[in-house]
Amino acid sequence: MSTENSANVSRRQFITGAATAVAGLTVAPGVFLLKTAGAANGADPATRWGLLIDTSKCADGCTACVRACHEENGVRSLGRPKTDAQWIRKVTLTERETGHQHSLPVMCQHCEKPPCVDVCPTKASFIRPDGIVLVNKHTCIGCRYCMMACPYKARSFIHEPLTDQKPHAPRGKGTVESCTLCVHKVDRGEGTTACVEACNKDGHRAMVFGDLNDPSSEISRRLRQEGSSAIRADLRLNPAVRYQGI
């Protein structure tokens, strides 16, 4: 078989596989997967949304942010620790030299140069003009390349049919998902996320959400005055989630 014919066959096989995968998506009645992707049309390119997390205020053992995120977006445990979806998780970092530990939440870091977007063969993974990284469930074929490319292990794959979904957080069997920075709240003009609200309600106030491009925003002022670190800064992805105290 010639090289050209081989390429055509490979192309047809990929398109057929993609069509089959998309056709197999399972969503709840009335839930429109395009809703999240369509919100990008109104995103302000002058804005870049981000999170600042002060690990010195993040209480060890506290999972308020995790519970709030999952409740807000309809993410439920099925009792399968290895395959359950996790939009946000608490991790413990230990300094080798001193043994000092930090407890901190990790989610999609909403990179300026997201590897998940680079490797997606159908462009289902995309970055909005305001810096929020999302997955279009209509075009996600479940190949999971983005999961392998993400250095933060921030994406989950949905293995089973789902019911009782939230209209603002469409989810579908056979697709990949991750933290959306509560894009539905952003697009409603609420200027906050479920994790930040929960952290403030518990009195820890370890998380700040805001516009990184607005010099007068609290997050920008804090970053200017106190500085921050990025997880895996060596990769130069310029994540929108920044940490203090690590």
Question: Keywords, please?
Answer:
246 residues; alpha+beta; Alpha-Beta Plaits; three-stranded mixed β-sheet; two-stranded antiparallel sheet; 8 helices; 9 strands; disordered N terminus
Give the strand order, joined by hyphens, for the main sheet. Answer: 8-1-9
Strand content: 15-25%
What's the number of domains?
1
| Approximate helicity band | 25-40%
Describe the structure.
The protein contains eight helices and nine strands. The chain has one domain: Alpha-Beta Plaits (2-Layer Sandwich), CATH 3.30.70.20. It has 246 residues and is an alpha+beta fold. The strands form four sheets. A three-stranded mixed beta sheet has the order 8-1-9. A two-stranded antiparallel ribbon has the order 2-3. A two-stranded antiparallel ribbon has the order 4-5. Helix 3 crosses helix 7 (194-201).
Helices and strands, with pairings:
Elements: H1 3-23, H2 34-38, E1 49-54, H3 64-73, E2 88-94, E3 101-107, H4 115-119, E4 125-127, E5 133-135, H5 145-149, E6 156-157, E7 176-177, H6 183-187, H7 194-201, E8 207-211, H8 218-226, E9 241-244
Parallel strand pairs: 1-9
Antiparallel strand pairs: 1-8, 2-3, 4-5, 6-7
Helix pairs in contact: 3-7
Entry summary:
This protein has one domain: Alpha-Beta Plaits, CATH 3.30.70.20. The chain contains 8 helices and 9 strands. It is of the alpha+beta class and 246 residues long.
